[in-house]
C-alpha cells in the first residue's frame, strides 16, 4: 500500500482528481468490504458493502443489507455512485475470504437513471431543510410540502409561491396578499390540521401544549 495515499481501515482516501481514480487505487482492491463513502453532497454519507468498482465507467456500486443466501432472501438495495461525487472513503470492515459474486450485467442507462434520481432526491431534501429553524418549524414545512408547493424564505415558509407563514407558524402568522385571498381557507385548513394533529399527539404523550387557533366570537352574543 502506498503510504502517501494514506488508505486503510481507519483512514480517508480522497479521489486523485475529479471523476477518476487510478486503477492502482486501493478501493478497487477491497470489493466486498464494508465501507463508508463520503459524497460531495452536503452531509451525505453511505455505509454499505462495496459490490463493484469500475475504473472504465468511473462508477461504484454499493449494496445495503446482507448478501443473498438463497432464492428466498429479501432483495438488496443498491446505490450507484459516480467517482466524481466521491469526496472520500473509509473501510469499516474488510472483505470476506470468499469472493463476491460478479456484478450482473445491467444497462448503463438504467444505472445512470437510478443515480440521477438518487441525486435529485438528495438535493430536494437538502433544499427543503430549513436553516436555523426549530424542529417544529420543519414539521410545519414538511406538512405543507406533502400537498402544496412550499419553500423557505429565511425563517418564513412560502406556500403556493405567495402565502407567507411566519413564526410561530400559527393561523395568526399567515400573511396573504390581497389578490390571493381565495387561497386563504385552503392554507388555513392545512395549518389547522397540522396543529390539531400535533396537539393530539402531544396530549397522548403528556407533552407541552402547542399554540392553539383561537375561535372567533359568535355574532349576536
UniProtKB/TrEMBL annotation:
Leader sequence residues: none
SMART domains: AD
A Pfam cross-reference name: AD
Region (Disordered): 1-25, 196-221
Domain AD per the UniProt entry, residue ranges: 104-199
InterPro entries: AD, Lsm12-like, LSM12_ABD
Highest taxon above the source species: Eukaryota
PANTHER family, per the entry: LSM12 HOMOLOG (PTHR13542)
Protein's name according to its UniProt entry: AD domain-containing protein
